[in-house]
Design brief:
The chain is mostly helical. The protein contains 3 helices and no strands. It starts with a helix and ends with a helix.
């Protein structure tokens, strides 16, 4: 059984996750409204900018490089 303190920490964590999920969805919708945005082209560009293509992860450096 979880203690009250642990339950509260879990609640705070899950609430933060849910709030961030809503924020991300709102941003995704705004991006989708941009006529000049092409999701597949952006995805391919991000993948090609990754320093280690075998890693299958994007670093913060990769994202900054993409945004320039």
């Amino acid at each position: 059984m979880l203690s009250e303190a642990t339950k509260y920490k879990l609640y705070v964590y899950l609430k933060a996750v849910a709030e961030n999920e809503v924020m991300i969805e709102e941003q995704r919708q705004e991006l989708g409204k941009q006529e000049e945005f092409e999701p597949y082209a952006a995805f391919k560009r991000l993948l090609s900018s990754a320093e280690d293509p075998k890693a299958n992860v994007l670093s913060p450096k990769d994202i900054c490089k993409f945004l320039r």
